[in-house]
Design brief:
11 helices; about 290 residues; Rossmann fold; globular
Length: about 290
């Protein structure tokens, strides 16, 4: 039987994983809400499935592996809410299942370290929704679920360079503010390694080796562009969207030892320095990847 990955919410991270699996002979089925995105997926060698709109049961019957990559809401995971019976029916024949969560489930640790054994004490609404969704996926009988708690994702087309170039970037200064990040290719490498080495029930923090204050990352981006350092502004005076402000409500350093020790992953981009350099190198003259 051909290895077949069904991705629920085929987005940025799933594209990077599919690019690894398809050359190995995998079939990848990806859900999307948009007919336009469905055409783009097909051009990448991915079988598109419009969802919501079509039942998942036929695709689940073909799948050997499952990746859930759709955001949670107040009720938890929306796919389980709509298709829980079909997923439960398919669970016994799946070799591997993954759920993409977030390091936000740990909450605020005032700059301290967290690992996979740290209690889940989210302080944001999004974090609480993710904790609920994690528990719902774990509760599906016979499902070989793996939880991946992702740090802030960046990679080609996602980075701070545009704001630094157009002058809108600001160094928001908040003492003892640490954030973790992950390059999309490193996330795909972790998922790929887990598929090859299943450990149902496991949770993994997926991030680079060096949690860093956000203003440090912006300074490095400006240096790489040979532009002046963006102006600084204290956190309590900064103009920010509610979502951006929520990111600053939590400070922690996330340990990633488990992906290295258990899965044998060697990060391609172990710190923000390699990460930013790679993103800039992938950008063309127009500033687009």
């Amino acid at each position: 039987m051909q290895n077949t990955l069904l991705v629920l919410g085929h987005g940025y991270t799933a594209q990077a994983l599919a690019a690894r699996l398809i050359p190995e002979g995998w079939k990848v089925i990806g859900t999307t809400r948009s007919p336009e995105k469905a055409k783009a997926l097909r051009a990448q060698g991915i079988e598109p499935l419009i969802w919501p709109g079509n039942p998942l049961a036929p695709a689940l019957a073909r799948a050997t592996h499952l990746l859930a990559s759709i955001g949670a809401d107040a009720a938890g995971d929306p796919v389980l809410a709509a298709e829980g019976d079909a997923i439960a029916a398919a669970a016994p024949h799946l070799a591997w299942a993954g759920y993409l969560s977030t390091t936000g489930v740990y909450g605020d640790h005032q700059g301290g370290w967290v690992d996979e054994k740290t209690p889940l004490t989210p302080s944001t609404q999004r974090g609480r929704w993710r904790v609920l969704a994690e528990s719902q996926w774990r509760a599906v009988p016979s499902l070989p679920i793996h939880i991946f708690r992702l740090a802030g994702i960046y990679g080609p087309g996602r980075g701070p360079f545009e704001k630094v170039r157009d002058g809108s970037a600001r160094l928001v200064i908040k003492p003892n503010q640490f954030m973790s990040r992950a390059h999309v290719e490193d996330i795909a490498a972790v998922l790929h390694a887990s598929i090859r080495r299943p450990n149902p029930g496991a949770a993994y923090n997926v991030c680079d080796n060096e949690p860093t204050p956000p203003e440090v990352v912006l300074r490095q981006a400006a240096r790489l562009l040979n532009l002046p350092e963006p102006p600084s502004v204290p956190f309590d005076q900064a103009e920010m969207t509610p979502m951006a402000r929520s990111f600053y409500s939590e400070s922690k350093k996330v340990r990633n030892n488990k992906i290295r020790d258990e899965l044998g992953v060697k990060l391609l981009y172990p710190t923000y320095r390699e990460n930013l350099a790679a993103i800039l190198a992938a950008m063309g003259p127009s500033g687009q990847p």
